[in-house]
Amino acid sequence: MALAIEADTSLSAHRVVRVLEELRVIHGAPQALRLDNGPEFRSLALDEWARKHGVELHFTQPGKPTQNGHIESFNGKLSGCPLGGSA
């Protein structure tokens, strides 16, 4: 289950933080987030947001997508669905 899906050809760090903040207001802050090494996740904006809300950031090793296998699987299923469809 995804709490939010933000789709675009690229996402800025500020958009990532905006969505995380919206989710934090509704659901509370998570204890930790597992992230890949994309620039939107390795940003000062996300680091500051996480520190402010006590969220640990855990990054996968570069070139090791299996360290985040459930997300890679979810992304694969999602990319095969038309908008509005179900996985």
Annotation keywords:
87 residues, mainly alpha, Nucleotidyltransferase, domain 5, two-stranded parallel sheet, 2 strands, 40% helix
Overview of this protein structure:
- This protein is mainly α and 87 residues long.
- It has a domain at 24-75: Ribonuclease H-like superfamily/Ribonuclease H (Nucleotidyltransferase, domain 5, 2-Layer Sandwich).
- Helix content is 40%, strand content 9%.
- β1 (32-35), α2 and β2 form a beta-alpha-beta unit.
- α1 (13-27) packs parallel to α2 (44-52).
In short:
This protein is mainly alpha-helical. It has helices at residues 13-27, 44-52, 69-79; strands at 32-35, 56-59. It is 40% helix and 9% strand.
**What is the CATH H-level superfamily of the domain at 24-75?**
Ribonuclease H-like superfamily/Ribonuclease H
Major sheet details? 2 strands, parallel
Residues in helix, %: 40-55%
Secondary structure: number of strands: 2
**Which parts are unreliable, with pLDDT below 50 for 5 consecutive residues or more?**
none
Rg computed from alpha carbons, rounded to a whole number of angstroms:
13 Å
What is the CATH class name of the domain at 24-75?
A: Alpha Beta
- List SSEs in N-to-C order: HEHEH
CATH topology of the domain at 24-75: Nucleotidyltransferase, domain 5
Q: What is the approximate shape?
A: globular
Measured by DSSP, the beta-strand proportion falls in 5-15%
Summarize model confidence as the mean pLDDT.
Answer: 85
Structural class: mainly alpha
Number of helices: 3
User: Biggest sheet: strands side by side, in what order?
Assistant: 1-2
Query: Between the first and last Cα atoms, what is the distance in angstroms?
Result: 10 Å
- Can you tell me the CATH architecture of the domain at 24-75? 2-Layer Sandwich
